[in-house]
Amino acid sequence: MAKKRVGILFGGKSVEHEVSLQSARNVYEAVDRAKFDVVLIGIDKAGQWHVCDAALLGAAASPSAELAAGTAGDALALVPGATEHAFVGTGSHRGLPPLDVVFPVLHGTYGEDGTVQGLLKLANVPFVGAGVLGSAVGMDKDVAKRLLRDAGIPVARSVTLTERTAAVATFEGLAAKFGAPFFVKPANSGSSVGVSKVRDAAGWAAARTAALRYDRKLLVEEFIQGREIEVAVLGNDDPQASVPGEIVPQHDFYSYEAKYLDENGARLRIPAGLPPAISERVRQLAVAAFQVLECAGMARVDFFVCADGRAYVSEINTIPGFTKISMYPKLWEASGVPYPRLIERLLDLAIERHRREQRIETSYRPGN
What Cα–Cα distance (Å) separates residue 349 from each residue in 78, 122, 319, 346, 352? Predict the structure, then answer.
């Protein structure tokens, strides 16, 4: 059987660019070369697409590495409507032969939020993960919370503020509503970028400024005292949930620094050691959230689980981290799906969904 050609798409015009490089390196190393040929496609901080080599990705292993604009390799463009050669060169490079599937290992805006998914869809290229709607909804914590709440899935109480409304909101008013401390976070961001735990008026002013650096709206969310539990979901129409795992932060909360810069920033417990009934409850909620938010392929669903057993969905990540310390692959490994088989399954799910979508009619014929 001929090997499939896989494009790993990484980097991106995002504050999570550096994390993406670490994830992409791990995915690249895990792909079964007996079944797949791999092409590396990097997006630099300026938004330019390039053909990259493994040496460049290997050199980007540090948490602060990034693809410098214009120096990452031959430039590419993705052409909507192309029948075969969707990736074309913009200079002397001739472009890429047809790819069977693309694995977007992009975190944050301009990659995880439906923008790249829409472009790949227009170019008729199969891709791993949620489509345009699921990606956009999953990225926007405000909209995701509304949909989850409407579906009866428990979420923390919160209020969404814009720059204008945040300017007139006071710490005292927010503390009266949610108690103190409370959390402030950008509505569209991940990896805990721009997230603050607020205890006083000075903290609210600083948190408001920090969150609005990364998005045009922010969430003020109640602090829930509970264990931080994560569940990995895998599948399309019949998604399955992994065993739950627990994050035990060694910082004040599970911040960007705790996730990626401090190797001792958090301890992982897999499985989480929850009572069986609660473990099954969060697994069911994870699948329900995945389906409510129109996800596909993969997602990681994060929870707060209180001492009395109540579970609240914190957020969903439609392109979860794939670094060496990331929970998504670790949870599936603990559930009996080793890393290489997980990557293969995700690629198969992407191709399966694409083939099914190709059967959808795009022309109306009266009488048929």
Answer: 22, 19, 14, 5, 5
